[in-house]
């Protein structure tokens, strides 16, 4: 990026669009929305603490020394050049704006996320800044009036995966522009990751390959990567089988790995925690509850809260609950047994298909998050998640089965007195309910395997007869 001599105003090329961008950003700068590049940096390091560091543009997914997970490490000392109050002011000035790229809830925090990526390589679709929904009626029914749901599914592809994918794809685009050779960016997926990667890859002009467990994702999730032009490979296995293959492809350099094993994804996802606090006028809730499958989201939440604490934005952490489906609960089993190592299990079928994962890659990260946030792990059966989804929907929500796992876990903790009715609780909704129409229809038609539809509300089919319509209304709503 070039700047006018003696100023911080950027200089673009002379075509009309470039002149417009310059004019728009200059106006936004005078209102505090635009900041020129600053000397902040982030790099890859070993999660376990082994020596060495690598550029974030380097395709490395495991520590060369110990074989463990990697992390993105920020220069926190450099970030302390602003006070906590100054960071709050900056983030609030950008929030809800349209100046590129700060209209994104992720890139509005770019200094804390991925400071080295220039504007022209960022791939963003306005992700983040999703509604923090006050579940007033549902909460009061449960005796929890301060219940909120962070609707991360209100995003471009309908899931929270967009928050991480904007960062990963932007870094890949920047790396390719600087010489990285990539045949394709690829992921294993139970649906949402593939949809997000496909959309962001298409926007960036990058080839995308997705590996899906054949017949085990919703139609909507399958069609998204197909529509975006990705190479879609449906494999006769589950997610864990797809993940084993994608890791081997990445190790051999055939593809660039886009699963949350790659810590770039977590950098975008950590903004969920930051945004929740921002939406509460920078006040910390008492509890945050999130569904857990591959478990990167638990770690991401912790990273967001940890960064806010380190930089003086907050003075305490919320308690964390990771909610798992009973059919795929390796973290719940380990945590309940007092173990800090998570042993893989064979994941069984669950309506919460996106978290049907028996060998979660980010388990060590999630364990640390739970330890640091005084966390708890809870589970939900198929019956529990299906019923609570219908209960929540009847109060105006439209809940995906994974969010229902979090809500069911919250209900159980509230009933046991672990969560107090006076506390502020946020459940993170990871995807939009419209992606799971088959789940909703099967519940209300009484077709979910092993589930009794206690709250079914099927349509009543009648002739086009006025009297019968009147009778139906009077019978349904008696005096």
Summed up, what is this model?
With about 475 residues, the protein is an alpha/beta fold. The chain contains 18 helices and 15 strands. A hairpin with a 6-residue loop joins strand 3 (about 40-45) and strand 4 (about 55).
Description:
- With 479 residues, the chain is an alpha/beta fold.
- It has a domain at 132-158 and 265-444: Rossmann fold (3-Layer(aba) Sandwich).
- 39% of the residues lie in helices and 13% in strands.
- The protein has 18 helices and 15 strands.
- It has helices spanning 16-30, 76-79, 84-94, 110-113, 136-142, 161-177, 192-204, 219-227, 239-251, 264-269, 271-279, 296-310, 330-336, 363-372, 382-393, 401-415, 437-444, 466-476, and strands at residues 2-3, 10-11, 42-46, 53-54, 70-74, 132-134, 147-151, 185-188, 208-213, 231-235, 256-257, 287-291, 319-325, 376-380, 425-429.
- The strands form 4 sheets. Strands 6-7-15-12-13-14 form a 6-stranded mixed beta sheet, with helices on both faces. Strands 10-9-8-11 form a 4-stranded parallel beta sheet. A 3-stranded antiparallel beta sheet has the order 4-3-5, with no helix packed on it.
- A hairpin with a 6-residue loop joins β1 and β2.
- The chain is globular and about 75 Å long.
| Strand arrangement across the biggest beta sheet | 6-7-15-12-13-14
Outline the low-pLDDT stretches: 1-36
β-strand number: 15
Average per-residue pLDDT, rounded, comes to 91
CATH class of the domain at 132-158 and 265-444: Alpha Beta
Our measurement of the CA-to-CA distance between the termini, rounded to an integer number of angstroms, reads: 71 Å
Which architecture name of the domain at 132-158 and 265-444 does CATH use?
Answer: 3-Layer(aba) Sandwich
Per the principal axes of the C-alpha atoms, what is the gross shape? globular
Spatial extent as radius of gyration? 23 Å
Structural class: alpha/beta
**Oligomeric description of these chains:** single chain
Strand-residue proportion: 5-15%
CATH topology of the domain at 132-158 and 265-444: Rossmann fold
């Amino acid at each position: 990026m070039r700047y006018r001599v003696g100023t911080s105003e950027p200089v673009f090329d002379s075509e009309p669009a470039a002149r417009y961008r310059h004019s728009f950003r200059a106006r936004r700068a005078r209102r505090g929305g635009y900041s020129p590049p600053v000397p902040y940096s982030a790099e890859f390091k070993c999660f376990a603490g082994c020596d060495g560091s690598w550029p974030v543009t380097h395709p490395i997914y495991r520590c060369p020394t110990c074989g463990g997970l990697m992390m993105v490490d920020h220069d926190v000392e450099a970030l302390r050049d602003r006070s906590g109050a100054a960071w709050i002011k900056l983030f609030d000035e950008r929030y809800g704006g349209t100046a590129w790229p700060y209209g994104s809830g992720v890139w509005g925090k770019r200094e804390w996320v991925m400071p080295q990526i220039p504007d022209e390589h960022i791939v963003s679709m306005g992700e983040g800044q999703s509604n923090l929904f006050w579940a007033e009626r549902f909460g009061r029914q449960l005796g929890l009036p301060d219940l909120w749901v962070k609707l991360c599914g209100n995003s471009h592809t309908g899931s929270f995966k967009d928050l991480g994918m904007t960062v990963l794809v932007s870094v890949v685009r920047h790396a390719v522009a600087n010489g990285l050779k990539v045949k394709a960016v690829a992921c294993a997926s139970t649906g949402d990751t593939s949809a997000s990667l496909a959309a962001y890859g298409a926007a960036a002009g990058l080839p995308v390959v997705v590996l899906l467990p054949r017949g085990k994702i919703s139609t909507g999730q399958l069609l998204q990567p197909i529509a975006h032009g990705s190479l879609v490979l449906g494999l006769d296995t589950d997610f864990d089988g797809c993940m084993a293959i994608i890791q081997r492809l990445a190790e051999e350099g055939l593809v660039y790995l886009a699963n949350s094993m790659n810590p770039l994804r977590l950098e975008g996802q950590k903004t969920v925690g930051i945004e929740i606090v921002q939406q509460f006028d920078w006040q910390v809730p008492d509890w945050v509850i999130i569904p857990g499958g591959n478990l990167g989201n638990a770690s991401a939440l912790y990273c967001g809260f940890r960064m806010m604490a380190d930089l003086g934005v907050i003075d305490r952490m919320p308690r964390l609950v990771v909610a798992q489906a009973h059919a795929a609960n390796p973290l719940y089993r380990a945590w309940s047994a007092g173990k800090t190592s998570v042993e893989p299990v064979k994941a069984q079928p669950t309506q919460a298909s996106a978290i049907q994962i028996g060998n979660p890659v980010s388990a060590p990260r999630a364990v640390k998050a739970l330890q640091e946030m005084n966390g708890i792990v809870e589970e939900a059966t198929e019956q529990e998640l299906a019923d609570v989804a219908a209960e929540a929907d009847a109060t105006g929500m439209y809940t995906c089965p994974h969010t229902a796992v979090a809500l069911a876990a919250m209900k159980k903790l509230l009933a046991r007195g672990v969560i107090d009715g006076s506390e502020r609780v946020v459940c993170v909704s990871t995807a939009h309910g419209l992606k799971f129409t088959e789940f909703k229809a099967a519940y209300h038609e009484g077709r979910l395997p092993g589930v009794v539809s206690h709250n079914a509300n099927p349509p009543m089919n009648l002739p086009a007869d006025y009297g019968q319509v009147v009778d139906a209304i009077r019978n349904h709503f008696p005096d």
